[in-house]
Amino acid sequence: MTQPPITRPASGQPGDQPTRRAAVAALALVPASGLLLQDSARAQQKGPDRGTWSGDLALTIKGRGQFEVPVAGIPGGKARVVWSVDRSARGRVVLDRSFGGSGLARMPDSNNQQRYESWAANTRQTLEMTVNDSATYYGYIAPQRISLDETDYHCPEPDDKHPTGLLRSSVLLFDRAEGTYIWERPRMTHRCATRIRRNPKHGPADWTARAPFDLLSNSHELEFDIFFGLWPLEASYRWSGPYTEGAREIVLSRKIDLHWGNPFERDKHPAPVLANLELVLRKSG
Predict the structure, then answer these.
(1) What does the angle CA 222 – CA 168 – CA 134 come to, to the nearest 5 degrees?
(2) CA-to-CA distance for 71 and 78, rounded, in angstroms?
(3) Residue 118 CB neighbours (<10 A)
(4) Which pLDDT tens digit goes with each residue over 21-31?
(5) 130, 87 in Cβ contact below 8 A?
């Protein structure tokens, strides 16, 4: 998924050109890095049929807010960002392939089949996923030109040709030496439509006379990840807990505090988002 780069101006002022470019697409952030999986290696480590770990997953990610940044020369004296994150997903996690050794990257003694038992999915599962994100930026987009820019992400796409998303690459690892489990959440993706509309507000007559126009109109995001543009990533994709040999239920439900990656000095202008995950994995067979 190609996105315009987000850069921080040297002076730290929101009126600088790099920040203006970033704010034009206020939700267009660097995509989340890949989950640390080793699918090709796992495919070669088939073990005996030992049943299935499965459970119904429900996820919501919500947050909204606004903030202003002083900018000299702008009418009103401030640039302004208003943002809303509204995402949800429902699907079934099915881990029906087990093998010895670690199915997760960067684990100590990862080839030790007596220490580790790994579970993964033989196939991808379908996912009900919705995204209704929006952000507006009011401020300079060029010298002497001030605009109100609006960015929206919507899943599913308006044409309804792709009603469902995909859930894949989840891994459940049991570490017998430590008496713990480690769960790496699945990737949850969907095709999304992106729209960026520019509304000229202040500047030369030839600028203010222009009608609102689209920089992007239903541009396709082929694999929009439900955690796209949120940080810190490490809080959202892997966690662990105690495990007793022979247990047949693992409760993975939790709340995760995240932040929307706004384009203005995010440490000074926090944009909190709460992810609420509900999932209980149970062993059958």
Answers:
(1) 45
(2) 5
(3) 25
(4) 333 333 333 33
(5) yes
Is residue 46 scored above 50 in pLDDT?
Answer: no
Which among 1, 8, 5, 3 has a CA at the least distance from the CA of 267? 8
* Per-residue tokens: 194: 């992106």
Number of Cβ within a 10 Å radius of residue 71:
20
Binned at pLDDT 50, 70 and 90, residue 79 comes out as: very high
- Return the H-helix or E-strand segment holding 18: helix 17-24
pTM for the structure as a whole: 0.80
pLDDT in tens, 133-181: 999 999 999 999 999 999 999 999 887 788 899 999 999 999 999 999 9
Place of tokens 């949120």: 230
The C-alpha atoms of residue 8 and residue 113 are separated, in whole angstroms, by 47
Which letter, b or e, does each residue of 120-135 get, where b requires 16 or more Cβ atoms within 10 Å of its Cβ? bbeeebebebbbebbb
**Of all helices (H) and strands (E), which one includes residue 52?**
strand 52-70
